[in-house]
Backbone:
């Protein structure tokens, strides 16, 4: 039966054509065998010198070609079939810091040896959701395969400045957030004496002659001012992140600062003038009469700034 | 002669059939949702890139997106999100999955996702996605049930009130064979 099939096929296709097909089909492997290819091998160990298994070793050439392998239980790996040249070699494993060796030379005549020691990662744990106990990655359906080269981050062509971590920028952001948190808390606390100051203003001004009410209003105003400027200090001194365009409600929040900031300077000055005039038994007059309206506008701008970042309009 | 050409073509096709195939992410929209007692916020990114490599009936997919590319419409909120997610130190969200090549013709798939984000690697099992194939392109939609706790992220707070732990990420992707 098989002989008949073979004879039929043999009679249908000219032998020269079959040979041509086989030649074409095997051409890539023949070329690979004839070209001078190099290899890279080595052993990966932990700080104690013990072999580390399941380390993903990725070699990236200058022209963007990558090849990966995973270390075995003895910590060894081998990347073969590498065209001669310089390679960036990356070692990645869960629980360890990623190691990048920028220049490993591979030539076509001998196997290059590249051993590496991995450091334990201080941050960046490996956890798994919806799985009762942590298991080895080989048992997962999406575990990296040893038979094919899965796509790597380098394949996606992100620019280095986008894909590489920047601890200094992270530290800057941490400091910024820390200072703005203090700004936010002090700002919230400021609202308490601010409201109290506005509430006591009704008995401190106008036709009232009570010095107690005036003193209480002044004291509350002073506390408000102190807290306000402490809060403002943390907003002004918080580090700026270069290249960040201000968008959204924070623009309104910052715009309001141009009203309540000068208002918080002007209000106590006008208040001191009004206090002096009242203490002399005079009716508040001249520029000091603007104390009340300026204070109201200032308090209003402060409240609007607070609401702009608190409630979504 | 025609018969010979036909056979040769069939033989050539059989060679192609066993070769690796690749997919490329043509378009992607990722949207995270954050809930706060005073706010409902969403951050959107269109900057994801992805690639799939198929071999022996299995496809390995890799999708990556810069953390900084998420835009919630508020630069201050975005900077806080980058800070709490340690986006400057770990600038990429990387998603890996392996799927059978035959899933490309299914209406729904359940994918096991491995997500690297904020210095953590977390696996989400059996995340459902809907598939629609049209004009040679495959559109996927689904939601990743991510939480802040999964990635050990301290919930950001506003007016001393922290956001909720759940940050579901809606995924809309269009893949095409390369």
Residues:
């Amino acid at each position: 039966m098989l002989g008949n099939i073979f004879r039929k096929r043999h009679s249908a296709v000219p032998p020269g054509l079959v040979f041509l097909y086989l030649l074409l089909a095997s051409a890539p492997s023949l070329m690979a065998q004839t070209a001078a290819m190099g290899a890279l091998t080595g052993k990966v160990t932990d700080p104690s010198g013990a072999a580390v298994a399941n380390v993903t070793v990725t070699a990236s050439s200058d022209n963007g070609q990558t090849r990966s392998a995973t270390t075995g239980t003895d910590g060894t790996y081998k990347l073969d079939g590498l065209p001669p040249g310089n390679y960036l070699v990356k070692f990645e494993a869960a629980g360890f810091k990623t190691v990048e060796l920028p220049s490993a030379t591979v030539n076509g005549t001998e196997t290059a040896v590249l051993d590496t020691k991995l450091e334990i990662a201080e941050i960046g744990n490996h956890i798994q959701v919806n799985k009762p106990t942590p298991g080895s990655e080989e048992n997962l359906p999406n575990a990296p395969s040893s038979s094919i080269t899965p796509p790597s981050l380098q394949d996606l062509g992100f620019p280095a400045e986008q894909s590489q971590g920047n601890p200094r920028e992270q530290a800057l952001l941490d400091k910024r957030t820390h200072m703005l948190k203090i700004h936010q808390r002090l700002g919230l606390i400021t609202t308490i004496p601010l409201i109290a100051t506005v509430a006591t203003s009704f008995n401190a001004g106008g036709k009232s002659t009570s010095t107690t009410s005036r003193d209480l209003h002044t004291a509350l105003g002073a506390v408000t001012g102190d807290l306000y400027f402490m809060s403002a200090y943390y907003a002004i001194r918080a580090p700026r992140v270069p290249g960040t365009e201000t968008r959204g409600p924070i623009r309104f929040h910052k715009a309001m600062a141009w009203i309540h900031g000068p208002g918080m300077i002007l209000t106590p000055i006008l208040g001191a003038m009004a206090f002096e005039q009242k203490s002399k038994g005079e009716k508040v007059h001249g520029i000091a009469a603007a104390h009340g309206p300026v204070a109201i506008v200032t308090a209003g701008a402060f409240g609007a700034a607070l609401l702009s970042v608190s409630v979504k309009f | 002669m025609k018969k010979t050409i036909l056979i040769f073509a069939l033989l050539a096709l059989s060679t192609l059939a066993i070769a690796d195939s690749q997919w490329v992410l043509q378009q992607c929209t990722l949207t995270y949702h954050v809930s706060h007692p005073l706010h409902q916020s969403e951050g959107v990114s269109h900057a994801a890139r992805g690639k799939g490599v198929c071999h022996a009936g299995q496809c390995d997919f890799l999708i990556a997106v810069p953390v900084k590319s998420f835009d919630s419409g508020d630069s201050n909120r975005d900077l806080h999100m980058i800070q709490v997610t340690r986006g400057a130190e770990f600038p990429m969200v990387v998603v890996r999955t392996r799927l059978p090549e035959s899933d490309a013709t299914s209406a729904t798939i359940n994918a096991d996702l491995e997500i690297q984000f904020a210095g953590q690697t977390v696996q989400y099992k059996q995340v459902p996605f809907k598939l629609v194939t049209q004009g040679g392109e495959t559109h996927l939609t689904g939601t990743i049930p991510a939480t802040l706790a999964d990635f050990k992220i301290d919930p950001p707070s506003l007016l001393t009130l922290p956001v909720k732990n759940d940050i579901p990420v809606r995924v809309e992707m269009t893949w095409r064979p390369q």
Notes: Chain A has two domains: 37-163, 167-308. Chain A has a mean pLDDT of 78. Residues 167-204 of chain A form the longest helix (38 residues).
